Amino acid sequence: MNTTVNGTMIQLDAVEKVYRTDRIETVALSGVSLDIRDGEFVSVMGPSGCGKSTLLNVMGLLDVATKGSVSVAGQRVDAMRDAQLSALRNRDIGFVFQVFHLIADLTVVDNVEIPLLYRKGIGARERRERATAAIDRVGLSARARHFPSQLSGGQQQRVAIARAIAGAPRLLLADEPTGNLDSQMGDEIMAILHDLNTRDRTTIVMVTHDPRLADQTSRTFRLFDGRLVH
Amino acid sequence: MILHYLKIALKVLARRKFFTAVSLFGIAFTLVVLTVATAIIDHAFAPMAPEVHQDRTLIVARAMMRGGHAMWRSDPGYLLLDRYARNLPGVERFSISSSPRTAYSYIQGNRIQSVLRRADADFWRILQFDFREGAPFTSDDVTQARFVAVVNESTRAKFFGSSRAVGREIEVDGQRFRVVGVVVDVSRLRPVPFADVWVPLTTAKSDSYKSQLLGGFMGMALMADGASPVAINQELASRLRRAELPDPKLWKQLYAPLETTLELYSRQVFGVDEDAESPAGRLWALMLGAALLFMLLPAVNLVNLNVSRILERTSEIGVRKSFGAPVRALVAQFLVENLVLTLAGAALAFVLAQIVLSGITASGLLPYAQLHVNYRVFLAGLALAGVFGFLSGVYPAWRMSRLNPVQALKGAVR
Q1: Cβ burial, residue B349 (10 Å; 0-12/13-18/19+)
Q2: Which band of pLDDT confidence, cut at 50, 70 and 90, is reported for residue B273?
Q3: What does A18-35 look like in DSSP terms, one character per residue?
Q4: What phi and psi, each to the nearest 5 degrees, are found at residue A87?
Q5: What φ, ψ does residue A35 adopt, rounded to 5°?
Q6: Which end is more exposed in chain A, N or C (fewer Cβ atoms within 10 Å of the end residue's Cβ)?
Q7: Which residues of B touch A118 (CB under 8 A)?
């Protein structure tokens, strides 16, 4: 496991992200610099189209910054090759998406196993044990053999969280994890995220539109037109 | 991991029934054609009774005399084979038989057409026929020019119905022969042993064949274990260089190679010069190339279907990439999925191919051919299915693995 530098999980320095097509150039992020410490639970807020998801994608190594430097879990990622980025994502980062993105053809436990499939040195039995433990952690043991279509929205998001934490990542990136849920289910999801943060010291970055949820995090980054505002 | 791939492959195939049906039809149709072609090629070239020593057997079936302005191509004559091709070093046994020719018989006013071959006793020692009755004629029969015959089962049925034939007489080509043996039908696709009726060489209507260098005969050499076909051919060529030619002013050179059945076919296909290198390799390459070409169009169709299928699974690809799936894992996953589909198509193709082959066998289109999906055809079919699966899966797999995860998660891939 890599150690973080001075307890910093994510460090962005003057990050810029520009999307270019033949005719249009869109600046999604501009001059974004921030540090997120190991074990923090932070939120990112801002209006639609302000660059929140892009910021999360850059932090999650799903997208590459056009300019600036990005360090995650103590490693500079700017010059990493695709295979290295994949390995780092697999080992250190978990994702929770607004629309769950569960694979409809797989059962709950098979979905949760996905990150472990790509982890070296884990056999089928250990994979199953760790997936089962993650499902247990989100309170869905009774649904392990169900398919996503047989679950409610809240249950599907809990499965998505189980999948995100099955590989014991140090960083969890959640993109509007309660956006498709009613407030009661949203509270259940937040409770699970808080539990992960406090018990496992998992660093969590959560994009949200909901100030009530942002208030529950230790810090909130606000974005407007791709820039951090204070 | 493989289990996971298989599980999702089966789920996807079961979920997309129309796609699966269309793909299976394309794969099965392609593989049926290739499997049938493979079965026919196997039937023509693979070692099987009576050519059980095929790996040690060389044939002299082509000969040529060349002069300054003249060339005479033909099958070899008895004189050439008897005088120059016998007792070659490295040859354990040598047989001379006539080229098969059509002969007629008449029973109660009905004309029966047969293929007649005149052979020596070594013919039966090199080739291992399956006798249903009696035995082959002997050296003594040949030496004494006895009018005895071996017939195949179909000929027995034509002459004697379902009763035994050994000891009874048949008239073929205006000569009467006593049947001494009955063998299982040999396919027309096996030109070396093929005939309906085999009789001793010496029962020919005249002895004139004994003085002919070219025409009407075939030699068959059984090499000793470890003997070199090149050395045997060199010795034969050396003898032929010193051969007495009928008109030395007209003819300068006599040529007759010892070659495998495959070499014989390949020279006929390519029409190459006698002194050129064997084109057997080119024949295999041509057949393989034709098979690949035949697979290309359905493979391209399957590629398109697969790409469409991928575009419906971009979310899954995005998730897998997000959680660290490397390119090679995604390529492997999709190749496994495609191989599962292709192998399912192959299983269907084997069943259909067996039905088609049974139909061809029953139709008599290829006389006496017994075509079926044997283990060689099965393995070749599996290999072809593997190549087909790879061809049709590798591009979609590569394309899938290259998807940008963010775009894939948005489902915004085109």
Answers
A1: buried
A2: low
A3: EEE-SS-EEEEEEEEEEE
A4: -65, -40
A5: -125, 140
A6: C
A7: 320, 323-326, 329
Side chain identity, residue B109: G
Element (H, E) at A150: none
Shortest Cα–Cα distance, B372 to chain A (Å): 39
**Local confidence band at B171 (pLDDT 50, 70, 90 cut-offs):** very high
Q: From B321, which residue of chain A is nearest by alpha-carbon distance? A: A86
For chain A positions 58-77, those within 8 Å of chain B (CB to CB) are 60, 62-63
- Is the bond preceding residue B136 a cis peptide, omega within 30 degrees? no
Closest CB from A86, A88, A110 relative to B325: A86
Rounded distance, CA B179 to CA B132, Å?
Answer: 12
CA distance A86 to chain B (A): 4
Q: Which residue of B has its CA nearest to A54?
A: B406
Distance from CA of A115 to the nearest CA of B (A): 5
Q: How far apart are CA B202 and CA B194, in angstroms?
A: 19
Q: Which helix (H) or strand (E) holds B356?
A: helix B327-363
Hey, is the C-beta of A21 within 8 angstroms of any chain B C-beta?
Answer: no
Pick left, alpha or beta for residue B161 (phi over 0 → left; psi -120 to 50 → alpha; otherwise beta). left
Alpha helices in chain A (DSSP H): 52-59, 82-92, 108-117, 124-137, 153-165, 183-200, 211-214
CA–CA gap between residue A204 and residue A174 (Å, rounded): 7
pLDDT at B355 over 90: yes
Angle at B36 between CA B30 and CA B41, to 5 degrees: 125
ipTM score of the complex?
A: 0.92
pLDDT (average), residues A68-87: 90
Contact (CB<8Å) A62/B11: no
A18-43 pLDDT tens trace: 998 888 888 999 999 999 999 999 99
A160 within 8 A of A97, measured Cβ to Cβ: yes
Minimal CA separation from A155 to chain B, in Å = 18
CB-CB: which of B315, B319, B405 is closest to A114? B319
